[in-house]
Write a structure and sequence with these properties.
264 residues, mainly beta, 17-stranded parallel β-sheet, 9-stranded parallel β-sheet
Length: 264
């Protein structure tokens, strides 16, 4: 549990760094877990991968895509729209910034379901709706992403995995990390939002931290497994009801710690 408490401190440093860099320079180069700096770019991309030059950007061909610099979206638009299966997006330590009135940072076109999608290694910040919205898709991998200040939810996924992510957002937002399919969420930290983590269709949540949720720290649908998590400071300044962990149906809830849930 000491490790979980230490992990909760990651979010402060990561999000403050993102805010300071955005305010002072309009750019941010570090990802959520302090990876190496991005390699030099070239007109042909990096290691044969396809560079994403500007936003909005539509991916309609399977392949591996990479950012070579920070990018800013436009009002009324999403940042990257995926319209095919088998796509990998390496944020490469850079940030997708939303603009006023923007929609989602990364999403599927027309909210259509696709499979085998990876988003990793960078930041998605200040979008008008969700940072990542892959809720209707399957076999998703989201790894090493910082989602900061996104107004809807931080990360929404279908089936797949979400790991080593840091999510910070407004208490007026919906959910920090939410899975609409049976997903595995591990080693993630959420600060803020109405609910920290949600397993809508069951699944696994392990070794995660949520703090400062407005209503509920963790929600698990039937057949959820929630282990080794820390929930704290739920509903400190908002009317209830407030819950640390809520589950439905037959679920396993074990070895979690809940601190400071406000009275309903």
């Amino acid at each position: 549990m000491t490790a979980l408490r230490n992990r909760a401190a990651w979010i402060v440093a990561a999000v403050l760094a993102l805010l300071v860099a955005a305010a002072l320079a309009g750019v941010v180069r570090s990802g959520p877990l302090d990876p190496p700096g991005p390699p030099a770019s070239s007109p042909g991309g990096i290691d044969g991968r396809i560079p994403i030059p500007s936003l909005p950007y539509i991916i309609d061909t399977p392949g591996s895509y990479v950012l070579t610099r920070n990018l800013t979206g436009s009002s009324g638009e999403s940042g990257i729209l995926i319209g095919t299966n088998n796509v990998e997006i390496d944020l490469n330590g850079f940030t997708l910034f939303g603009a006023g009135g923007s929609v989602d940072g990364v999403a599927t076109r027309f909210n259509a379901p696709f499979t085998n999608i990876t988003v990793r290694n960078g930041a998605i910040a200040f979008w008008g709706d969700d940072g990542i919205d892959l809720a209707v898709s399957s076999n998703i991998r989201i790894d090493g992403v910082t989602a900061a200040g996104n107004a809807g939810s931080g990360i929404e996924t279908g089936t797949g995995t979400v790991s080593d992510c840091i999510v910070n957002g407004p208490t007026t937002g919906v959910v920090g990390v939410r899975a609409f399919g049976a997903a595995t969420i591990s080693n993630c930290v959420v600060q803020g939002y109405g609910t920290g983590f949600a397993l809508n269709a069951g699944g696994i949540l392990r070794d995660c931290v949520t703090e400062g949720a407005r209503f509920s720290g963790i929600y698990g649908g039937a057949r959820s497994t929630i282990t080794g998590c820390l929930v704290r400071d739920v509903g400190a300044v908002f009317d209830g009801p407030h819950n640390g962990i809520t589950v439905e149906g037959t679920s396993l809830v074990k070895d979690n710690v809940i601190e400071n849930v406000a009275d309903s």
